[in-house]
Amino acid sequence: MNNRNSLNSSQKAVLKNIAYDISPYELNMSAGSVKTALDKLVKMDVIQKSGKRHELVDPFLGMWMKGNS
User: Fold this and answer.
1) What's the Cα-to-Cα distance from 32 to each of 3, 66, 67, rounded to whole Å?
2) Phi/psi at 51 (nearest 5 deg)?
3) If phi over 0 gives left and psi between -120 and 50 gives alpha, with beta otherwise, what is residue 60?
4) CATH classification code of 4-67
5) Rounded distance, CA 53 to CA 22, Å?
6) What is the pLDDT along the chain (69 residues), one digit of tens a residue?
7) pTM of the prediction?
8) Of 4, 6, 17, 52, which residue is least crowded by CB atoms under 10 Å?
């Protein structure tokens, strides 16, 4: 990922939920918005699909996010 600041608010929220191992579909946004954010994050190689779930490509990003939230 080139720059975390290049993420929009929906992508940041989805990424945070994934970092905390919470379904992004629990966010207060439409399923379509969540899917769009997930697709963009996958395309950016920030997350990857693992079975029915998504996970961070870089586990250190999750640790950083948890320490800075």
Assistant:
1) 24, 26, 29
2) 70, -125
3) alpha
4) 1.10.10.10
5) 10
6) 445 558 999 999 999 999 999 999 999 999 999 999 999 999 999 999 999 999 999 988 988 888 886
7) 0.85
8) 52
